[in-house]
Design a protein that fits this description.
Number of helices: 11
Strand content: 5-15%
Radius of gyration: 26 Å
Structural class: alpha+beta
Number of strands: 12
Largest sheet: 4 strands, antiparallel
Distance between the termini: 34 Å
Order of helices and strands: HHEEHHEEHEEEHEHEEEEHHHH
Strand order of the largest sheet: 3-4-7-6
Length: about 375
C-alpha cells in the first residue's frame, strides 16, 4: 500500500509514530467478545415454563444467585470513579470494560430470548411489532416504526437505522466524559432479521409518566420545549467538547428556548438524582447529499462536481448523518487554515515594520484582523 499511495505512506508513518508514543496499556489489543449465530439446527421441543425463565434465580454469568444485577447502577458507579491521574484512569477503564462486557453478554442472551419468544412482553395486548420487554433489568425494544414517528423520514427503514445513530450519539457523549451527565448502557443486536435495542433502565422511569420525567428537550416533536439550568450547564460543556452548535428554538407558544442539542434529545432526572440524557440519534449533522427532496434554492448550493456524481441522491431514509471523524477532520482543517493565515499576516506585518522602521502601532492595527480570521475559520 505504501508503494501504491504516497498519501497512505505518509499517513501510515504518522499513525505509527503516534501509536509508539502511547502508554503500553493503550497499545495492547483487547479481546472483545464475538457472537456467532451459526449453529446446527435442532428439533424444537415444547417447554411450557420457558417464558418463566426471566423470573427464576439462576447461577449463570448474568444472574447472581438470589438476585439480578443492577446494570444501570453498576455502569453509572464506574463512570463516577475518580480519574485525576493515569493510574486512576486505568482502573476506571478496566472496571468499565468488565462491566460493559458483562452487560453486552447479558443483553445478547436476552435479545435472543426475546426474538425466540422466551420473554413475556410488558405490553402483551399490543401487536408484536410494538411489544417491549424487560429481562434481567434490561429494557428491550424492536426496530419498527409502530407509532408513525418516522413516517416522514422513511418509516421502518428509518426506525431500523435510528438505534445505530443513537448508539453513536451515546459513544460521542461518553467520549466527552462530562462529570454529572450520564448516558444509558446501550447495545444494538441484529438477530434473525430483527434489530433489538437493549438499554439499562433509569431508576423510577417506569413509575412515572413521560411528561413528568422529561426536564430537558421535547416529547412532542418541538411543540413544547423545556429546559433547566442544571442541564444547560452540563450540555454546554458537551457542546464545546463535541463541537455542536448552540441554537435557539421556538415552541408553539412563541417562547424561545436555548438548546445545546437537537430538539429530540431528552434529559431525565432519575430517582438516584443523576442527570441522564437519551435519544441522541440526531447528535451528528445530517448529510444533505442523501436528501433528494430539496428546494431549487438548496439545490443551487451543490457544486457542478457534486451534481456530476448524481448528488443529491435518494435514500431509503432521511436520517443519513455525517460521521464524527469527518466533523473532527473538518474542524482541524479549519484551525490549520486559520493558523496559516495568521502566520502569513504576521509575516507581512513584520516586513512592513522593518520597512517603516520601529513603528509598533502596525501590530495593534492587525490584531483585529487576526480576530476576524479566527471567527471566520472556526
Amino acid at each position: 500500500m505504501s508503494q501504491l499511495s504516497p498519501g497512505f505512506k505518509k499517513g501510515w508513518s504518522v499513525i505509527n509514530k503516534k501509536r509508539c508514543s502511547l502508554h503500553p496499556f493503550e497499545r495492547l489489543p483487547t479481546n472483545y467478545q464475538l457472537f456467532s449465530w451459526l449453529s446446527p439446527k435442532e428439533e424444537h421441543q415444547v417447554d411450557c415454563v420457558r417464558a418463566e425463565d426471566a423470573y427464576t434465580a439462576r447461577s449463570t454469568e448474568e444472574h447472581i444467585p438470589g438476585q439480578t444485577r443492577e446494570w444501570n447502577e453498576e455502569l453509572q458507579a464506574v463512570r463516577e470513579l475518580p480519574c485525576t491521574n493515569l493510574h486512576e484512569r486505568l482502573l476506571r477503564d478496566r472496571a468499565f470494560f468488565k462491566v460493559h462486557s458483562d452487560f453486552v453478554a447479558a443483553a445478547t442472551r436476552g435479545a435472543m430470548l426475546v426474538v425466540d419468544g422466551g420473554v413475556l412482553a410488558i405490553n402483551p395486548g399490543d401487536e408484536p411489532r410494538s411489544q417491549m420487554f424487560i429481562w434481567s433489568n434490561i429494557f428491550f425494544s424492536l426496530g419498527f416504526d409502530v407509532r408513525d414517528h418516522y413516517g416522514d423520514y422513511g418509516g421502518d427503514a428509518a426506525a431500523f437505522a435510528a438505534p445505530l445513530l443513537d448508539l453513536r450519539g451515546v459513544q460521542l457523549y461518553n467520549s466527552a466524559d462530562i462529570k454529572g451527565l450520564h448516558t444509558l448502557g446501550t447495545v444494538i443486536i441484529d438477530y434473525k432479521g430483527f434489530r433489538i435495542t437493549a438499554q439499562s433502565i433509569i431508576p423510577g422511569i417506569l413509575e412515572r409518566e413521560q411528561e413528568q420525567s422529561v426536564v430537558y428537550g421535547s416529547i412532542d416533536f418541538g411543540k413544547t420545549i423545556v429546559t433547566t439550568p442544571d442541564y444547560d450547564e452540563l450540555l454546554d460543556k458537551v457542546a464545546k467538547a463535541t463541537k455542536q452548535q448552540v441554537h435557539l428554538a421556538k415552541n408553539k407558544d412563541g417562547e424561545v428556548k436555548k438548546l445545546y442539542t437537537s430538539v429530540e434529545t431528552k434529559g431525565i432526572q432519575g430517582n438516584d438524582k443523576r442527570n441522564y440524557v437519551l435519544d441522541l440519534l440526531r447528535t451528528m449533522p445530517p448529510d444533505v447529499n442523501f436528501l433528494s427532496d430539496l428546494s431549487e434554492e438548496d439545490l443551487g448550493l451543490f457544486s457542478q462536481e457534486a451534481r456530476g456524481m448524481q448528488f443529491p441522491r435518494s435514500h431509503t431514509h432521511k436520517l443519513a448523518v455525517h460521521r464524527g471523524e469527518l466533523v473532527d477532520a473538518f474542524c482541524e482543517s479549519r484551525y490549520l487554515t486559520y493558523w496559516k493565515l495568521a502566520m502569513k499576516s504576521t509575516t507581512e506585518t513584520k516586513k512592513e515594520i522593518e520597512g517603516k522602521g520601529s513603528n509598533q502601532f502596525t501590530i495593534l492595527i492587525n490584531i483585529p484582523v487576526l480576530i476576524d480570521l479566527f471567527i471566520l475559520y472556526t
